[in-house]
């Protein structure tokens, strides 16, 4: 096995030195932010960074061009966004955003603080790589397809499938045991990983899932489920089961201006960051939901499920990444504004010669990348638009 460099996944206490300045990644277990936390992030973005809050594909957030790491640390800790200086990078927990409010077989949101508390309580689990991913799916299948190292997927009101290395292990758990078994699986991954710092994910260990099952001392009993990698982005007016209203809001290229975030905080309702770089504003009265749309749609939030902005994602590009050949975000935004992002199924020009940004016209979901690393690419059926020295290549 080829050994790679040690895991350098960024956090708050370990910033990434991007081409445009230091980058901080803030873990948000389950994607849940209370209004005070949204306000704290907005103020930090304005006072200490570039004025935007970036949403990540794991339901976390990032601040770019951080100018004062110490002050940022203090502010995030005061807001409850940095409960541990040892475990901050391992709190990668994605939960079904609509769970407990709309559909689903079981409410997984109470499992989020239980799992997070269990991680923080174990000094050994601070040694997990920053890339390890936990998922909690309420049975609708929206997050189980994201390739978790360890996850649980509701198969009934009191039963969960244990997911390992992105697949169903065949183990079935009672709800009361789900968190304990997930934590035991994380310990088993560390056992198998040993001193090999180059193996960041469970699937990188040969027969990793089967070996974790053996260490758990449990026997698979169920037919294995299959999970889709296609996006299920909740956008627009969402009728909650209790009669309240949720709003799914798309965020252009996953970059939320701090001023817009301040308006979100003023709504005074819980907000969930989704793994699709969007937001869900919850527990609104109908009149309040109407006001939120009226105010925030003109500020750039997307409440129209047919918007072409929802078809486009992009890596950081220039000036944020030194490896990028160009400013892909500007080019992707121009493609949307110019009507060159089309609805319908993907129909890429496979193998086409490199072309200028203004010649790229593609239907369906697409990801713009500044180089062949294709950072931030979503899972599922996606057309890749990759920058090269000679222009863009469409794959």
Major sheet characteristics: 5 strands, antiparallel
Oligomer: single chain
Helical proportion? 10-25%
- In whole angstroms, the N-to-C terminal distance is 30 Å
The run of helices and strands is EEEHEEHEHEEEEHHEEEHEEHEHEEEEE
Radius of gyration (Å): 21 Å
Number of helices: 8
Strand order of the largest sheet: 1-2-5-4-13
Structural class: alpha+beta
- Look at the structure and give the mean pLDDT: 95
How many runs of DSSP E, i.e. beta strands?
A: 21
Secondary-structure map:
Blueprint (H helix, E strand, L loop, with lengths): L15 E3 L2 E6 L5 E2 L1 H14 L3 E4 L5 E3 L5 H10 L14 E3 L15 H11 L12 E4 L12 E7 L2 E6 L2 E8 L3 H16 L14 H9 L19 E4 L5 E6 L4 E3 H9 L4 E3 L4 E7 L1 H11 L15 E3 L13 H10 L3 E2 L19 E2 L2 E4 L13 E6 L2 E4 L1
Parallel strand pairs: 6-7, 7-8, 16-19, 17-18, 19-20
Antiparallel strand pairs: 1-2, 2-5, 3-14, 4-5, 4-13, 8-9, 9-10, 11-12, 12-15, 14-15, 20-21
Please provide a brief summary of the model.
This protein has 395 residues and is of the alpha+beta class. 23% of the residues lie in helices and 23% in strands.
């Amino acid at each position: 096995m080829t050994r790679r460099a040690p895991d350098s996944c960024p956090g708050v206490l370990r910033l990434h030195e991007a081409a445009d300045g230091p980058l901080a990644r803030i873990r948000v277990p389950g994607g849940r932010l209370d209004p005070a936390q949204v306000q704290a992030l907005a103020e930090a973005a304005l006072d200490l960074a570039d004025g935007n809050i970036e949403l990540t594909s794991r339901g976390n957030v990032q601040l770019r061009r951080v100018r004062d790491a110490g002050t940022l640390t203090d502010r995030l800790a005061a807001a409850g966004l940095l409960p541990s200086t040892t475990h901050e990078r391992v709190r990668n927990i994605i939960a079904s955003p609509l769970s407990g409010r709309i559909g689903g077989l079981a409410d997984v949101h109470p499992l989020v603080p239980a799992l997070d508390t269990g991680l923080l309580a174990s000094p050994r689990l601070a040694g997990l790589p920053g890339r390890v991913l936990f998922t909690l799916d309420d049975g609708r299948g929206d997050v189980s397809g994201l390739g978790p190292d360890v996850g649980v997927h509701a198969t009934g009101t009191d039963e969960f499938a244990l997911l390992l290395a992105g697949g169903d292990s065949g183990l079935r758990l009672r709800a009361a045991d789900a968190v304990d078994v997930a934590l035991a699986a994380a310990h088993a991954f560390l056992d198998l990983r040993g001193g090999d710092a180059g193996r960041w994910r469970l699937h990188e260990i040969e027969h990793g899932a089967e070996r974790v099952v053996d260490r758990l001392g449990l026997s698979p009993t169920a037919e294995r489920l299959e999970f889709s990698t296609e996006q299920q982005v909740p956008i627009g007016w969402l009728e909650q089961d209790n009669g309240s209203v949720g709003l799914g809001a798309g965020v252009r290229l996953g970059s939320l201006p701090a001023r817009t975030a301040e308006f979100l905080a003023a709504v005074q309702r819980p907000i969930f960051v989704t793994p699709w770089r969007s937001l869900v504003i919850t527990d609104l009265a109908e009149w309040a939901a109407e006001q939120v749309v009226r105010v925030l749609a003109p500020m750039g939030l997307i409440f129209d499920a047919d918007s072409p902005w929802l078809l486009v994602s992009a890596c950081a590009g220039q000036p944020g990444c030194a490896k990028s050949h160009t400013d892909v975000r500007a080019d992707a935004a121009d493609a949307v504004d110019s009507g060159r992002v089309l609805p319908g199924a993907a129909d890429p020009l496979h193998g086409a010669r490199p072309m200028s940004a203004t010649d790229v016209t593609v239907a369906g979901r697409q990801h713009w990348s500044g180089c062949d690393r294709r950072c931030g690419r979503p899972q599922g059926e996606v057309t890749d638009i990759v920058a090269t020295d000679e222009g863009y290549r469409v794959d």
